Amino acid sequence: MPLLKDGNLVGEDAWLSVADDAPLPEDRPALISHARWQADKEQLVGRNAPVGIRLPNTVDVLDFGPEAGRFDLIVLEFPKFSDGRAYSQARLLRERFGFGGELRATGHVLQDQLWHMQRCGFDAFEIAREDATQAFAAAMRSFSHVYQPTGDGRVSALKQRLAATRKQEAAE
Amino acid sequence: MYQYDQIDQTLVDERVAQFRDQVARRLNGAISEDEFKPLRLQNGLYLQLHAYMLRIAIPYGTLSSRQLRALAQIGCKYDRGWGHFTTRQNLQYNWIRLEDAADALADLAKVQMHAIQTSGNCIRNTTTDQFAGAAHDEIEDPRVWCEIIRQWSTFHPEFSFLPRKFKIAVTGSPNDRAAVRVHDIGLRMHRNAAGETGFEVIVGGGLGRTPFIGKTIRDFLPRQHLLSYLEAILRVYNQFGRRDNIYKARIKILVHEIGIETIRDKIEAEWQAIRDGALKLPQEAIDQIAAHFAPPAFETLLGGVAPEYANAFRTDFEFGLWARRNTFKHKQPGYSIVTISLKKEGEPPGDMKAEQMLAVADLADRYSFSEIRVTHEQNLVLPHVKQSDLPALFKALKAYDLATPNVGLASDIIACPGLDYCALANARSIPIAQQIALRFKNWERAHDIGELKIKISGCINACGHHHVGHIGILGVDKNGEEFYQLTLGGSADQDAALGDILGPALDTAQTVDAIDSLVETYLRLRRNSDERFLDTYRRVGLQPFKEAIYAAA
Amino acid sequence: MAKAPKLKDQAHIVTANHLTSGDVVYLTVRNDWSRDIAAAFVAPNAEAAAAWLAEAEAQAARNIVVAPYLVPVDAGTTLPWPIQFRERIRAAGPTTEKAAGGVA
Ligand code: HEM
Ligand code: SF4
User: Which of B24, B116, B495, B528 is most exposed, with minimal Cβ within 10 Å?
Assistant: First the structure.
């Protein structure tokens, strides 16, 4: 499955997805399940190589969030494109808990969702398309403005308008 | 009225371009129906019983004459010369071709309109009081807040794939004309002890298969926190609302299952974390939006009745009837609010021909500062008419069959499209409405009966609000035949209540007769002519009505 | 579409909506589509109906029509006439139609 990071194709995923009963590789970034993290927490915190986690969309991020900083990658799931729970998880991780690592969308990821996903803080996407980079580039051109402030740094329409009137007033 | 700036216009134009590309990909086979369906639904394009149906958003029910003209033109160019106004203050075209859909949306965008979020599991068009900005009993103009909500909810990245659709309604008056207690979120403006205006926040109302009256989650929310509070509610719902069963996915079920206390705790906790963040509304931003809704240039008229008006009232009996039923008190002395009934007895409720739309657009230019409103009861409103102009307006409306004096009466029926158009229906709604309305064509009887709200849905989804009708009519399928179940005593107003089931379902002819018998029973039992059907029902209960319908059988 | 009937062993026709226009159409004996229910080919039993639906689905996959399904019809009449009330309205158009040229 093609993997996009910041809009570019990643040739080979550096992360090794590890089954719950398999040993973790010593020297390679390992991606584990939330269940394994819950079970083997003590053991895992001492590890040197980076750890990533797959978070089911039923996990309450308010519980998990304080631990988010321990991970370099968090993978959030879209079992169906219409199941939008991970959008809220993503925003909470980025905006409430300050997660700064890679936030990856997996599952039923479609071109027309990419715009929303990156607005919510995703920066990596597993997307089943040959033309993944073009699809991403097209999706990023969807809209020139936004109405909502999110953690993505875009200036909302409301703030743009306020800035414009303030500038105008200053000029007068 | 709100006018788009460059930002709003660009977004709507970009949306049309995006949809045009999606339609092109569908028509050339690049995407399948399964992939396309959610995309077309996000642009209001359904496949109905007969054809594609396009639902246009009329934000909080407000139209300019220019927009209404465009709706008429689009109706002629791409449809069959008419449109259908719905209980959600929207407009539906029933016969749109897929290959024309993007062109129709492009024509709409030219007059600052769109079909964004008129379908799908997202935040839908926010609805409000059709008399907003004009009503004498208003605390504050709710359109300002509807527009603020419109912008916040449009293309909201976090809330575009909710468990289910989400509807918000706002009222700025204690007399609720927006049915706020039967919406996912209802916002009722009121004043606190310090005299500041804010919102009572109500959640978990709704009709459909499992109707609920909404519960108050917060008594008073200061205005600057509106968006952060909405965001907190939606964030909790998006994560914890059920997704395993489409019939249990609305927020009303979440509220019901986990309880209002638990959901309040979650929402308040979430709100505490974001209330002073980027969504907090600076007063300047509120003022900027409010400036769009500044009152029009009313003339300063003296109190008292305009002579033209008084004269017509005395000499023209029909005018008197109409003025009594179809006008409402304006806050500006010398002005009235006029409701244009789209319920001429025997016509499909809410349907409007293009010629009628054009005529109303002209009349709005002449008599109402070019403004028109759409009501959730499927009528139109001219919000600012000088009382001295009422006789002339009445004559002009009459020429287009638009002066039926029946607002709030038995023939002012709400009906969903039903089996004539809707792929989900069990039974027809419109023909029942037509037949009932004809029974109450006699003005003397209709006016004697007084306020009576009859609401008809063709299936349990309740698009026709039958649960909150004084008389509700629900279409059911009984071995392939159309049957109707009656409910009594519902209300969507400030005294919101769900109706009680009268008894076994009836066939079409029995149903129309039954409405007559219910009304006769009421007339017999009422204390005086001031006691409305609903009041009598509340006083005497179901039994006498039940006997009237079923005892003979 | 929501309530496709269980396939009883009886006569059926196939209906769908035309992709570009959205019009209600029926599959004819020539394997093309007509707006007129009178032109619909009647599959006499369940087995024939299933095969007939498969043909329609192939045409849906080729983006000619959308959402094809079977409609049980009364085989005793000269013209195929649906048994379900809903399908009769679908064939004849809204019963409230008032605009000119309304009924397809
Ligand atoms: C013709 C195509 C339509 C379809 C397929 C449709 C479908 C539905 C469905 C499935 C529901 C139930 C949602 C739920 O409970 O989760 C619903 C509710 C509703 N619809 Fe429609 N509807 C249609 C037309 C209309 C029209 C024309 C109106 C306005 C007259 C309307 C207004 C409403 C309202 C007010 C509700 C109930 C309030 C609530 O959401 O709780 N719908 N609709
Ligand atoms: S109530 Fe039922 S029949 Fe009426 S429009 Fe809604 S879904 Fe269709």
Answer: B528
CA distance C35 to A38: 61
**Runs of H (alpha helix) within B5-97:** 6-27, 33-41, 65-78
- Is A82 in the same domain as A164? no
Quote the CA–CA distance of A146 and B376 in Å, as a whole number.
30
- Token reading at A106: 């997996």
Ligand nearest to the CA of residue B458, numbered in listed order: 2
Q: Which of B88, B428, B430, B461 to mutate to test the pocket of ligand 2 (most atoms within 8 A of CB)?
A: B461
- For residues B340 and B42, what is the distance between their CA atoms, to the nearest angstrom? 31
- Domain of A113, CATH number, reads 3.20.20.70
Q: What backbone phi and psi angles, to 5 degrees, belong to B319?
A: -60, -40
Domain residue extents for chain C? 12-92
Q: CA triplet B238, A82, C59: central angle to 5 degrees?
A: 160
CATH of the domain at B523: 3.30.413.10
Q: Is any Cβ of chain C less than 8 angstroms from the Cβ of B292?
A: no
What is the rounded CA–CA span in Å between residue A81 and residue A105? 11
Same domain? For B158 and B265 the reply is yes
Q: Does ligand 1 come within 6 angstroms of the Cβ of B207?
A: yes
- Of the residues B399, B423, B450, the one at which a domain ends: B399
User: Is there a single domain that holds both residue B529 and residue B432?
Assistant: yes
Q: Which domain holds residue A151?
A: 144-172
Residue C42 φ/ψ region, left for φ over 0, alpha for ψ in the -120 to 50 degree band, beta for the rest: beta
> CA B537, CA B547: separation in Å to the nearest integer?
13
Query: Which residues from B are below 8 Å from A119, CB to CB?
Result: 157
C1, pLDDT greater than 60: no
Instruction: Note whether B183 and B211 are within 8 A (CB).
Output: no
pLDDT, residue C8, reads: 78
Domain identity same for B96 and B155: no
Residue nearest to atom 6 of ligand 2 (CA): B463
Q: Which percentage of chain B shows pLDDT scores above 70? A: 99
The four Cα atoms B25, B26, B31, B33 give a dihedral, to 10 degrees, of: 160
Q: How many CB pairs under 8 A join A and B?
A: 93
Q: How many helices (H) and strands (E) does chain C have?
A: 2, 5
Same domain membership, residue A50 and residue A110: yes
Q: Do B480 and C2 count as a contact with CB atoms less than 8 A apart?
A: no
Give the number of domains in chain B.
4
DSSP for B92-146 reads EEEEE-HHHHHHHHHHHHHTT-B-TTSSSSSB---EE-TTTTTBTT-SS-HHHHH
Is B427's C-beta closer than 6 angstroms to any atom of ligand 2? no
What is the ipTM for the molecules in this complex? Answer: 0.96
C14 alpha carbon to ligand 2 midpoint, in Å? 25
Question: Among residues B215, B213, B200, B136, which one has the least CA distance to residue B491?
Answer: B213
Q: Check whether residue A30 and residue A88 sit in a common domain.
A: yes
**Cβ contact C100–B97 (<8 Å):** no
Angle between helices B390-399 and B307-315 (to 10 degrees): 50
Range of the domain at B345: 307-399
**CB nearest C22 (choices: B47, B80, B428):** B47
Atom of ligand 2 nearest to the CA of B425: 3
For each of chain A's 172 residues, which pLDDT tens digit applies? 899 999 999 988 999 999 999 999 988 999 999 999 999 988 888 888 999 999 999 999 999 999 999 999 999 999 999 999 999 999 999 999 999 999 999 999 998 899 999 999 999 999 998 889 999 999 999 999 999 999 999 999 999 999 998 888 888 7
Cross-chain Cβ contact B480/C84 below 8 Å = yes
What was the pLDDT predicted at B330?
Answer: 96
Residue B320 placed within a domain: yes
When CB atoms are compared, the residue of B8, B18, B281 closest to A142 is B18
Identity of the residue numbered B471 = I
Residue B203 within any structural domain of the chain: yes
